[in-house]
Queue: 3 jobs
Job 1
Amino acid sequence: MDGPDISVDLCGVLMENPVILASGVLGETGPSLLEALEGGAGAVVTKSIGPSPREGHPNPTVVTLGDSLLNAMGLPNPGMEAYAEELEWLGRGSEAPVFASVFGASPDEYAEVAARLAPLVDGIELNLSCPHAKGLGAEMGGDPAMLEQVVRAVVDTTNLPVLAKLTPNTGDIGALASAAERGGASGLVAVNTLQGMVVDVEMAAPALANSYGGLSGDALRPVGVRCVHEIAGMTSLPVVGVGGISNHIHALEYIMAGATAVQVGTAIRTDGPQLLGRIATDLRDWLVDHDHSSLADVRGILVGGGHR
Ligand SMILES: Cc1cc2nc3c(=O)[nH]c(=O)nc-3n(C[C@H](O)[C@H](O)[C@H](O)COP(=O)(O)O)c2cc1C
């Protein structure tokens, strides 16, 4: 395509543009992944998949807060066997790369799911960061030693790139990034949702059935950008930025802070999957307007910059 180069090599996975569908928003079926690809995504990430079917939490599971969202879905998914059929439907011939998001209750379970889905995808993203599922996600990925074990177990079972998706619910995301690097991760994804609670005052009850949920959307963006900036400055691994992106300016914040690529979740619920392609087009136009020939001209320009 003419104009500035916005293609990306993410851990050896080639993408025409850096805008990726985030896990859990769409991505529950093959057709919904295809919708995101047809909407112009550079790549897509599946809903997080575990070894066996799981119902998730009872309703209400979502509270809307303006341009932000609090959710406690509880990792509902059909299990790896049923989901493999969705990926087979999508076909290995799909135009853009597909990453499988996986979770388990132990390093072995993560490895089992990754091994089952690996032949059907281009990369593995490890959900080490969901903040609302007992014993899973952030409860494992918040502990650097456990995180390292999970990453190593998966890296040992597949030749695909393995990206560790980190939680912002920690005082030291750098320690989590270092643990992922020691475990052999090819890349990092930051961030998953930030734990929060909304109260329905008239009912004198939590608004979510699970009481606590994960904050995503607009309000999460400064947290995500800060986390990406911090870990991009301390590891040589590529970092994917996610949290509160709904336009190309938001994507550029992450890219200048050090992100190789970005993911978009919550904003798709209101703007639809075409938003993914629109952000990519607007990114290219922005580069033209600012006399840049490639996204590489602005990537990471703030990394290493001082902070107080
Ligand atoms: C409804 C919903 C479901 C989600 N499900 C998952 C999931 O299954 N696995 C995962 O790693 N992240 C999941 N996430 C987190 C997103 O992938 C993303 O990290 C987060 O929402 C921040 O990005 P955003 O502000 O663009 O939504 C989910 C988020 C939402 C809103």
Job 2
Amino acid sequence: MQITILVGTMTGTAEIVAGDVKKALAAEGHAVDVLLMDNLKADVFQRPGAFLICTSTYGQGDVPDNARDFHADLVAARPDLGGKLAGVIGLGDSTYADTYNHGGMQFEQILSELGATLVGERLAHNASGTTLPEEDAVVWALEWVKLASPLAQAA
Ligand SMILES: Cc1cc2nc3c(=O)[nH]c(=O)nc-3n(C[C@H](O)[C@H](O)[C@H](O)COP(=O)(O)O)c2cc1C
């Protein structure tokens, strides 16, 4: 399966996570591209295959700076993402109790509104927890791809 990982990050953690997920999925035979969200537009969803959003949360539950324009373009352009398979890896910190993982949630919400099929449950990594985000994300992504692959073949 072709998979595009779209990365929203402030201090690079989500990019590291995406790199490890790419390696794990590539080892299973998938063709994976990692794209930082900087300068992306909604038309990136015209790429074939499935999509993973890998993003942290900043400010008052906002998407990271490099994801703002991309998120805003999705909200404004409202492309029809019907038939597109997607998954969300969210990074956050539960010390921000009121806005915990809202960055991932915001992407989940707009993708769902635009008709994408969200495969699996959004991963919410907690930086105040005891696990490493890249390790949790690799385990999650290997399950996600097992769910997504048959759906991609059926499409
Ligand atoms: C200034 C600042 C604000 C943050 N705000 C939130 C927040 O509102 N909600 C949340 O869940 N995490 C928040 N975080 C935690 C980050 O999302 C988390 O540390 C993440 O792993 C960082 O990933 P990145 O390096 O890819 O940006 C914040 C972190 C910082 C430094």
Job 3
Amino acid sequence: MDDSTKPIDDATPIDDISGLKLPRDKVYTLKEIYVYEANNIALATLKYLSATPSKKIAPFSYAWLLELHKEMLGDVWEWAAGRCRQVELTIGIKAYQIPMELKKLCDDIAFWQANKTFDIYETATRIHHRAVQIHPFLNGNGRWSRMLANIYLKQNGSMPVKWQEDLLSSVNPKRDAYIEALKLADSGDYTRLIEMHRITY
Ligand SMILES: Nc1ncnc2c1ncn2[C@@H]1O[C@H](COP(=O)(O)OP(=O)(O)O)[C@@H](O)[C@H]1O
Ligand SMILES: [Mg+2]
């Protein structure tokens, strides 16, 4: 596969297009699908990041975590958007554990907020990292996790991080450092990933 067709950090090759909602009179390249996804995600970005999102519209509840993914990708993917995957992937926890782990994440977010356990950058970082470690969906986990972190930052008075989601992986200057920071966070060291959440340009 030509690398230029890959999105910023496409770890999940799209090998099942059965749920694709686009007109079926043609075959789409990954890059074309990515553009449709980006247009869908832009609507969610407008909804959540154009002004401070209230707790009412972004409650960080279990149902909302799934709903957000559906808002981001539901115009493009029929059944895969907003639904927990039922198959194992190379990244992420076992499928049967996903609902429980997502619920735990919601409870932890509420606890961190109530107890001011971490500052907002570290909280956003931990939300992002846990969300992507769980990897609840067939695809879009990276973009959804980064959106979650950005909504949290915006809700708490900080600027969203510019991940340059509009760039393809082959030209995204942040990709390598980002993946490295995620791996470091896997080993318990959040410093590099936290740094990335502080940088708003
Ligand atoms: N070793 C890794 N290589 C690539 N992505 C990784 C790795 N570890 C974790 N990830 C996360 O997985 C995401 C890719 O998952 P995927 O579901 O395809 O999301 P998206 O479609 O939004 O890129 C990356 O954006 C990143 O957040
Ligand atoms: Mg992907």
